[in-house]
Design a protein that fits this description.
Elements (H helix, E strand, L loop, with lengths): L4 H33 L5 E4 L9 E4 H22 L2 E4 L4 E4 L35 H18 L15 H20 L8
Antiparallel strand pairs: 1-2, 3-4
Helix pairs in contact: 1-2, 1-4, 2-3, 2-4, 3-4
């Protein structure tokens, strides 16, 4: 039996897209950790196994920033996928009430018993120590991805604040939530 177009899209989300975004965020955490341990201008060489010469040469900063920046975008996408986003003039974490037509979210999937998965509530931050800090980290990551990266000359929500510690916390917590609440529960779609 062939999968419907919608089922194929959900299948791709479950097996490829969401795991890829999750891995990107985990790599973003590794990039932040690498950047914190070394001088930003230190030379960095990338080697591929069994190659004698580096395949890429740059600096720590030029290597880690693109990885952590893309991880922030993917982290925001994951939060939106599970039903949370940054909203309001003074940004706060809010639940997504309605999806735009064509958007796929966690609620479009089912568990092994056939029950639909649900968008995550704001209280999901309480699964972590210091939930208020986690909430602020998620908001800052969404604002960083949606404003500072997208509009480099307009930074009214973050006001020039160094968001690195908040990115670090978001990159630690969001993959765990996505793993626990989606990847561990969702079943492949059927036609």
């Amino acid at each position: 039996m062939e999968l419907t177009r919608a089922a194929k899209r959900r299948f791709d989300m479950l097996l490829h897209i969401i795991p890829y975004y999750k891995m990107s965020v985990e790599y973003g955490l590794h990039a932040l950790q690498l950047a914190s341990k070394h001088n930003q201008l230190a030379p960095l060489r990338v080697y591929v196994d069994q190659e004698a010469e580096p395949v890429h040469e740059t600096t720590v900063n030029m290597y880690t920033h693109p990885i952590s920046n893309m991880a922030a975008v993917h982290c925001r996408l994951l939060l939106e996928f599970v039903g949370l986003r940054s909203g309001g003039q003074l940004s706060d974490l809010v639940e997504i009430k309605e999806r735009k037509k064509g958007d796929v979210g966690i609620e479009d999937f089912w568990d092994i018993g056939g029950s639909p998965l649900h968008r995550l509530p704001l209280g999901v931050v309480h699964r972590f120590p210091q939930p208020e800090k986690v909430r602020r980290a998620w908001v800052a990551t969404c604002d960083f991805a949606g404003q500072r990266l997208a509009h480099a000359t307009y930074d009214n929500k973050l006001n020039g604040v160094d968001v690195t510690p908040m990115l670090h916390l978001a990159f630690e917590t969001v993959p765990r939530i996505v793993g626990d609440e989606f990847l561990a529960k969702a079943q492949p779609p059927f036609p």
